[in-house]
Recover the amino acids of this structure.
């Protein structure tokens, strides 16, 4: 099972269904024939989006996108038994690699998935993978799976867990334009699952699709008690009219690495007298919608201004000054923050 197919393809050029009685499925008689077909598909893609992948089932780094595959009997594929995380590569540095890796291992522990490698080896693999990709700007996404071996529910009899990682060549920049959001009608995950970064993202996907269908960028989840939770794959934060920065409690949602770093950097704005206070708190929908500013916070944004919610303007309906001040702090940290603690240099070779 391929991890991705070329984005330029809209439909298969192999299976053409006319009269059902005439339909015949092609049988690949050799691995070389199949590989030739896969190479032919990828040759039609001008810029390959995945320059490097690591697979513990292969035992190394793969540079040929046609071979970037995951076994169909991997329990992450057919049972959703896997966790993942993502770090940004920017200007040749991996941002907050250790923070993301620590959360990754907390998630795997909650999901009862052991790692085939110690933490230090996982880190080394990710750094070497980034180097092999030669990518200076993109993202580094990695997974721990219960592993391949059968189609049962329990992973008890599987030979070993699996570790996969891929470098994604993607351009991103500091977000400066505001977006619109809606309140999601899709039920959010229970705290046990929401607080671990697992591969079960169907609720997140449906929430995003719901927003797009209504002409919005994304959505906001509200918990069963009526308090603000998070977006489909981002945290959310607010600036009150009293210039307080408020982030919802993390007891029922994922504690985002970027929003936690923003909370560490935000006191600079308090020192400058631009922010009055910083706190985590429960916010009702009414309180949140009446805030002066609102934003999404996530790895590749890092801060995305929100200017309207359910067609109601947030504040004056324009990108907030303090939102952008927070965005500037995080973006500066991503591009010029401390090497070693916040940014890991990628050892590229010519």
């Amino acid at each position: 099972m391929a991890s991705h197919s070329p984005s330029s393809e809209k439909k298969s050029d192999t299976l053409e269904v006319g009269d059902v009685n005439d339909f015949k499925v092609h049988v690949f008689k050799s691995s070389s024939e199949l590989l030739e077909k896969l190479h032919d598909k990828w040759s039609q893609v001008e810029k390959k989006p995945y320059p490097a992948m690591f697979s513990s089932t292969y035992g190394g780094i793969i540079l040929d996108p046609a071979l970037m595959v995951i076994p169909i009997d991997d329990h992450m594929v057919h049972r959703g038994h896997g966790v993942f995380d993502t770090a940004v590569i920017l200007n040749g540095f991996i941002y907050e690699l250790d923070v993301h890796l620590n959360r990754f291992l907390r998630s795997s522990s909650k999901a009862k998935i052991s790692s085939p490698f110690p933490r230090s080896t996982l880190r080394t693999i990710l750094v070497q993978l980034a180097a092999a990709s030669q990518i200076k700007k993109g993202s580094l996404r990695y997974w721990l799976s219960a592993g391949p071996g059968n189609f049962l529910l329990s992973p008890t009899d599987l030979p070993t867990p699996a570790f996969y990682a891929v470098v994604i060549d993607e351009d991103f920049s500091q977000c400066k334009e505001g977006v619109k959001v809606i309140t999601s009608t899709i039920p959010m995950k229970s705290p046990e699952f929401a607080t671990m970064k697992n591969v079960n993202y169907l609720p997140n996907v449906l929430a995003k699709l719901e927003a797009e269908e209504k002409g919005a960028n994304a959505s906001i989840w509200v918990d069963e008690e009526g308090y603000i939770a998070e977006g489909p794959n981002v945290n959310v934060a607010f600036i009150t009219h009293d210039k307080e920065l408020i982030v919802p409690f993390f007891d029922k949602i994922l504690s985002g690495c970027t929003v936690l770093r923003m909370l560490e950097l935000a006191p600079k704005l308090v020192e400058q007298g631009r922010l009055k206070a910083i706190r985590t708190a429960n916010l009702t929908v009414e309180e949140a919608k009446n805030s002066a500013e609102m934003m999404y916070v996530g790895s590749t944004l890092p801060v995305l201004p929100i200017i309207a919610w359910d067609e109601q303007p947030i504040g004056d309906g324009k990108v907030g000054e303090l939102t952008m001040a927070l965005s500037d702090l995080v973006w500066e940290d991503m591009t010029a923050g401390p090497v070693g603690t916040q940014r890991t240099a990628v050892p590229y070779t010519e």
